[in-house]
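In response to the reviewer comment on reproducibility (Comment 2.3), we provide here a single inverse folding case reported in full, input and output, so that an independent group could reproduce the run without further information from us. The C-alpha cells appear first.
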C-alpha cells in the first residue's frame, strides 16, 4: 500500500480505466476485507489513479463499501466470528460513524480540489500504518 501511495504521489495516473483493473482492485479488496477487515485501499488507489473528480470519488467509494459490506456480513455470520462482543462494538461504533458522516459531509464540500489528493494519500498512509500496527500487535 505504501508503494502505491508513493507511486501516486510521484504523479502516476491510469491512462484509462479498464474493467480488468477495477475487477482486480475489487478482488484484492474483497480478499483483504474478509481477511483483515480493511478492504478500502485497493479500490481507493485505483480510483485515485484514475483521477476521479472528488465528489464522484466519494460517491463511488461509499457505494462500493456499502455493497461489499452487505456481501461480507453474511459471510462473517456464516463463519461464526460474529458474537456478542461484535454487536457491542457495532452498537457503539455505528452511531459514532453516523455522527462523523453527518458532521463532515458539509466539510467535504469545502475541501478544495487541490487538497483532495493529498488528503486521500495521507489517509492511505494512516491506513497502512494501522494495518502494520495491527500485524505487529
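Designed residues, in position order:
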Amino acid at each position: 500500500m505504501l508503494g502505491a501511495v508513493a507511486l501516486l504521489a510521484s504523479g502516476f495516473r491510469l491512462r484509462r480505466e479498464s474493467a480488468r483493473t477495477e475487477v482486480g482492485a475489487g478482488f484484492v479488496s474483497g480478499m483483504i476485507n474478509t481477511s483483515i477487515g480493511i478492504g478500502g485501499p485497493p479500490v481507493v488507489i485505483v480510483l485515485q489513479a484514475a483521477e476521479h473528480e472528488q465528489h464522484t470519488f466519494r460517491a463511488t467509494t461509499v457505494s462500493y463499501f456499502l455493497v461489499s459490506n452487505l456481501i461480507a456480513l453474511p459471510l462473517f455470520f456464516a463463519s461464526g466470528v460474529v458474537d456478542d462482543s461484535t454487536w457491542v462494538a457495532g452498537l457503539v461504533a455505528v452511531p459514532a460513524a453516523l455522527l462523523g458522516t453527518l458532521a463532515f459531509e458539509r466539510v467535504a464540500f469545502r475541501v478544495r480540489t487541490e487538497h483532495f489528493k493529498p488528503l486521500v494519500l495521507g489517509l492511505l498512509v494512516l491506513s497502512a500504518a494501522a494495518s502494520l500496527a495491527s500485524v505487529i500487535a
